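Sample entry as discussed:
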Amino acid sequence: MQSKVFSVQGKEIKTIELSDAVFGLPVNEDVIWYAINNELANKRVGTADTKTRKDVHGSNRRPYSQKGTGRARQGDVKSPLYVGGGIVFGPHPRDYSYSMPKKAKRLAMKSILSMKAQNSTIKVVEDFSVDSGKTKDLVAVLKNLLPQDKAERTVIVLKDDDSMVKRAGKNIPWLHFLSYNRLRAHDLFYGRTVLVMESAVNSLNEFYAE
């Protein structure tokens, strides 16, 4: 599969080969769903906690006599039936994370990349950096590569961990950075536009073609 390569000025300069084993597969929607839910579950903190009747502070004596009042029997004011009493079946701290098979996760990434390639939402750009680390310099580059009507959720796939580019994009809320070997299904799937560095394309072809 051939794809155009654009310069930082937004002009087509050449073409590059996208591996069919990575960008030309049938889209497996089920495995994409599992990969996204796995990432969201692993991010959950799970610190929600409630007090049961044994944790609530209060007296153990009966609030009134068991017999003779005509009212229902009550053991103590810590009962869930009372305001301020214990909570029944409330949440407690837990770990929501779980592991996903590596083959399934790789298939999810390749399915998303294939879907983006089929929808023409992947754009390959020549390698660039922002030596100044300033946001305005990165925005000037993005204006040439993205639609001008509005700012959309954009993902940039890098080959190396370019700290200056990430620094320049830290103040742009709709911009996300991913490394070719540490893709995130959630960010990649919901990215309206995926900008892939030219060097990252070759790395993706090799890394996911196995």
